[in-house]
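Title: Prediction job returns without error message
Component: structure pipeline
Severity: low
Priority: P3
Assignee: unassigned

Description:
Job completed but the reporter wants confirmation the result is attached to the right record. Sequence as submitted:
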Amino acid sequence: MITALNPLTDWLRAFLITWVLVPFRDTLLAVPFVAIVALATAAGWAVGGLRSALICLGFVGFLAVSGWWDRSMITVYMVSFAVGNALVFGLPLGIWAAANETRAYRVLLVCDTAQTFPSFIYLIPVVMLFGVNDVAAIGAGVVFATIPILRYTIEGLRGVPPALIEAAEMSGASRAQVLWNVRLPMAVPTLAIGLNQTIMFALFMVIIAAFIGTRDLGQEMQRALSTTDVGKGLVLGLCVAVMGLWADHLLRRWSAKRARVLGL
C-alpha cells in the first residue's frame, strides 16, 4: 500500500510543506507579538467586555514574556491548521449523519470506537504515509480533532426541539431552509462546545506529536523532561495551558452570549 500510494503522498507532502504550511508558519512568526496580543485582547473585548479583554491579555501576555513566543506560535500554527481541516471534514459529515437516525447511530459508534485508541496510535498511519514532518503531525491532529466536532454536530442538530422544526416546515420552509435558519442557529451553543473540544484535542495531539520531531512546545517539553529541567518544563506547560484556556474562555463566553440570545 505504501508503494502504491507513494507518488500521491510524496506530491501532497511536498505541496503542503512548500506552498501551505511553511508560508503560513513564516507569516505567523513574522507578525509582531504586539499585534497578536492586541488582537487577542480585542477578541476578548468583543465577546465579554473589559473583564474578558483583561483575561485574554493576561493569557497571551504570558506567552509574550515567557521566552517561548516563537515555539508558541509554531504550536498555534499547527493547531489552527489541524482545527481548520477538522471543521472542513467534521461539520459536513456531522450534518449529513444528523439527518438520519441510523446514520447518526453508526457515525457516533465510529466516534466512540476511535476514542478508545491511545492518542499516539494516530501517529502511526500518518508517519507511514508521509514520513516524519509537520504534515504527519498535523494529519494526526486532524483525524484526532475531527471526532469531537463530528459528535457535537450530530448531538446539537438532533437536540433541536421538534416543535421548532415542525413550525418551520408548516410555514413552508424547505429542508435546506430548516437546516440553515432553524437547526444550525439553535445548535450553535452545542457546536461551540464541540469546537472547544476540537481545539483541545488538536492541541493535545500536537504536543504528543513531539515524539516524531516537531519544532513546537512539545519538543522543548520532551527535552526538559529528559534533562529533568523542572523550571523549563513548568514554563512550557503553562504556555500550553494558557493557549487552551484562552480558546476555552473565548468560546465559553461567546457560547453563553448566543444561548442568551436564543433563549436557551
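Comment from assignee: result matches the submitted record. Residues 175-208 form the longest helix (34 residues).
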